Amino acid sequence: MAAVVPPAPATEALSPFETGPGTPAGRYLRSFWQPVKLSQDLREGQAQPIAVMGEKFTLYRGAGGKPVVTQSGCAHRQTLLSVGHVEGDSIRCMFHGWKFGSDGQCQEAPGQSPRLVERTRIRTYPACEAYGLIFVYFGEGEPPRFPDIEAFSKKHGKDMMSALVLDCGTYRRNCNYYVNVENALDLAHVPYTHRISSDPTITEVGFSPEVAFVRDITVERFDFGVRAIEVIESAPPTVSTVMLPNAMHLIVGQRDGYLEQVAWRVPIDDESHLSFQIAAMHTDEEGKIRYQEYQARKSELVAKYPSTELCAEQVLRGEKTLLDFADHPDLVNMEDHVAQMGMQFITDRGRENLAQSDKAVVQLRRMFMSRLADFVSGAPAESGW
Ligand code: FES
Ligand SMILES: [Fe+2]
Residue limits of the Rieske domain (predicted)? Predict the structure, then answer.
């Protein structure tokens, strides 16, 4: 895919954190398919606003079932198209009724000349659906090859798509996406951040207690990513891979087998992001039944609490502790929320004291910056999927 690349900025101006329109990392991330919504969260005939990398868009599902992504506002006076009406595969603005096809071409503009209709268009973006997620390509030119998760999983000795339990999910976290990208390689956080969720005497589901020790990790670099491997004596190793620029693949022990997860951290803006994940539980029939029974009770447990984000904010304000949420089905996630949202001065790296256990994170920073520099110098954006 040949991206349109403006002149390279000075390397020292490069940063993974800023992803707004025109920023180096923003253009880099826009060169890959990015998930924006769970398929199940967009009904046929429904339109919704979405925010990605500091920009707003309209997402809708037409009568043919295909997701369509357009610029957020109407060509006429920029009212949000997401509050309009889906008609067949088109969308009609709720303000004065201008109607646009899924290719962005204006089809009707009541009371206006046919010439105006003909010459009016809105911008649309390639969208597709896979693994229960809706993906969009926000870059210039032709979209890149779509990631083949199934082949990637098989290449690593697993078969994610035929796992007994396969699920997808999403959450919002109010911190820069890159903090969460790096977190995938920070295996030393697990025993402490997830102290409660890896203790079976306190929690019903969660990590296997075997993961709750700090061990040395092996770091592997490959063309478009970094992998951290932690060998655990009595359980399968934890293997966590970051696929540049913002995706990850993880295999980690759970109490009922092990979890294989693929996730993308997609910036909403520079202070918040959405994570979209596909999760496979490699377990046995009994583990599957326990999982399903727990899922049936999960909505009841979730209903006891405000959103995971708000619970984490209560902990950060000192009003609650994580132990107050010991039966929260999203406790693992909440623990990560608290650790990552609690980080301060993230973009001022002079305040950090990186140590031995951060060696995979350091490798990732080097590789991210080097691939970003290549990209702004005109190299094509390539992924390892
Ligand atoms: S703003 Fe959309 S039709 Fe007028
Ligand atoms: Fe974590």
Answer: 33-136
> How much is the average pLDDT of 78-106?
98
Residue 12 reports pLDDT greater than 60: no
Going across the sheet that includes 106-108, the strands are 85-87, 90-92, 99-100, 106-108
Whether 37 is covered by a domain: the verdict is: yes
84 CA: nearest ligand 1 atom: 2
Residues 118 and 207 in one domain: no
Of 28-37, 178-187, 296-305, 322-331, which range is least confident? 296-305
Average pLDDT value over all residues in the chain:
91
Q: Which residues pair with 94 in a beta bridge?
A: none
Asked if residue 125 and residue 89 are part of one domain, the reply reads yes
Please name the residue whose Cα sits nearest to atom 4 of ligand 1: 96
Share of residues in the chain with pLDDT > 70 (%): 96
For the record, the structure tokens of 353 come out as 């004291």
Pairing state of beta strands 90-92 and 85-87? antiparallel
Residue 108 structure tokens: 């009707």
Please tell me the distance between residue 313's alpha carbon and the centre of ligand 1 in angstroms: 39
DSSP string, 15-43: -SS--STT-HHHHHHTTSEEEEEEGGGS-
Using the mean position of ligand 2's atoms as its centre, give its distance from the Cα of residue 336 in Å: 5
For the CA of 100, the nearest ligand: 1
Q: What is the pTM of this model?
A: 0.92
Residue nearest to atom 1 of ligand 1 (CA): 77
Range of the domain at 299: 149-376
Q: Is 122 in the pocket of ligand 1 (CB under 6 A)?
A: no
pLDDT reported for residue 7: 47
User: By alpha-carbon position, which residue is closest to atom 3 of ligand 1?
Assistant: 96
- Probe ligand 1: pick from 98, 100, 112, max atoms within 8 Å of CB? 98
**CB of residue 79 inside a 6 A radius of ligand 1:** yes
Whole-number Å distance between alpha carbons of 242 and 221: 10
Residues with Cβ–ion distance below 5 A, ligand 2: 336
Name the least confident of 123-127, 139-143, 148-152. 148-152
Note whether residue 8 is domain-resident. Answer: no
